[in-house]
Amino acid sequence: MKGAVFAGGRTVELREFADPTPGPGEVVLEIKASGMCGSDLKFYRAAPGETARNRGLPEGNPVIAGHEPCGVVVAVGPGVDPKLARVGQRAMVHHYRGCGVCPHCSTGWMQLCLDGVAEVYGITGHGAHAEYMKVPARTLVTLPDELSFETGAAISCGTGTAWGALKRLELAGDQTIAVFGQGPVGLSATQLASAMGARVIALDVSEERLARAKEFGADVLINPTKVDDPVAAIREATHGLGAHASLDASSSAEARRQAVQCVRTWGKACYVGEGGNVNLEVSPDMLRRQVTLIGSWTFSTIGQAECATFVADRGIDVDRLFTHRWTLAQAAEAYSLFDKQTSGKGVILF
């Protein structure tokens, strides 16, 4: 089979790989949809020769990209519990492999494995930008019949990450949340928070992304480059009190600071954007306002399933996140466009 590989220097190559065969406890998924995630761009942009080092892999060990997998089980290895996987099952993949038995793995948080994450699919282990993908059966999450494979791919990372953060924030329908950054994760947070009944203030420096946020349920739009003080603008929109909660999906140091400052006394701020730093005045920004700061790293298998059920039960059109649909043969073109970070979300379909 062919698989898409980040070859370094903003290049994507299609390379030949053997069709996978499931071992004990494993399954093979025929991929139907494989989403493109902003975190892929770190490896896409890496200079030639740095790609493997960034992943902790030896040179000459290409890894199939893509960590938002969704498809159908086509082969089951020995010892797989039929309650976990069966041929013909529509499934998403929790895109981490841990030991499977530690306190975190056993509760669905394999990315927090006490032995260290053995593989992150699409980064240190073969991902979903290929026709087939082999994974442990315990990483499968059933895709409800009401949902498309594209929606399943989104929930497998970006939309699921937004869901995990909103649950960490304990967002309620009578609250206002400020969402910083309206890329795929931020836009998912806007869509889900709106469906939960919350009032959403969406912030982004792109007018195109703000327009999409309005379509996805945002009640107030703020472009930080066009107001004197985004925090003051949020307070003005919340009767001078500030938002009940905030979520930063931008990874911008300034946005992260504002996400803490914009919440009211007893408010909560959550960071989901990877990397970078933030500078805060601890006393005025946090201590003397009883502000809670939360870090949220993706989601558990249980959370992934709960997100899918929520989306299915409420008929949320997650497919609208995708502005571009590609074939595997178009992977290089797809990432070249995605690299500009001005469009919406892309997905590779099979």
Automatic annotation (TrEMBL):
Its cofactor is Zn(2+). Belongs to the zinc-containing alcohol dehydrogenase family. It holds the Pfam family ADH_N. This is Oxidoreductase. Residues 9-348 form the Enoyl reductase (ER) domain. PANTHER family: L-THREONINE 3-DEHYDROGENASE. Keywords: Metal-binding, Oxidoreductase, Zinc. One of its GO terms (molecular function) is oxidoreductase activity, acting on the CH-OH group of donors, NAD or NADP as acceptor.
